[in-house]
Amino acid sequence: MDLKRYVRDIENFPKKGILYKDITPLLQDRKAFQVATVGLLTMIGDTRIDKVVGMESRGFIFGPLLAHSLKAGFVPVRKPGKLPFSKLSEPFTLEYGTDILEMHTDAISEGDRVLVHDDVLATGGTASAVAKLVERAGGEIVQFNFLLELTVLNGRDKIAACPTHSLLRY
Length: 170
Known about the structure:
By secondary structure, the protein is α/β, with parallel strands linked by helices. It has four helices and nine strands. A five-stranded parallel sheet has the order 4-3-7-8-9, sandwiched between helices. Strands 1-2 form a two-stranded antiparallel ribbon. The chain is globular and about 40 Å long. The two termini are 17 Å apart.
């Protein structure tokens, strides 16, 4: 199944000059959604995973599904002011600005084997910030996993120390 058929381009979103890859058509089609989920799991193989970390907000779609299938815990990484407990924070640069990500201090245990999942790998800023949070908490990132990758932005370079897999590449 050609999953790229289910990803539409939105010009000038969220700001002028950005070509946004909209995955909602893929999510709305039950077969495409199922094929994508299986594809993401296949990229992990038989690697032991203790925690799946998903970034706000679209990492919350596939992240819990992957965690459930892998019999792992799910850790949400959120924007400031969304997590109620003690947290670690990490600033980062986006393709179109800057932001901060937060994770609960007790979300990752020393030695946890972590899969980091998000919908898109663009500049690598978000993934790199999450890597810093996981490492500060004592976790070991064993893989980065993305639904799609915008290769022209070279985001993979920022997370080159860990295996990185993308289901779709643009």
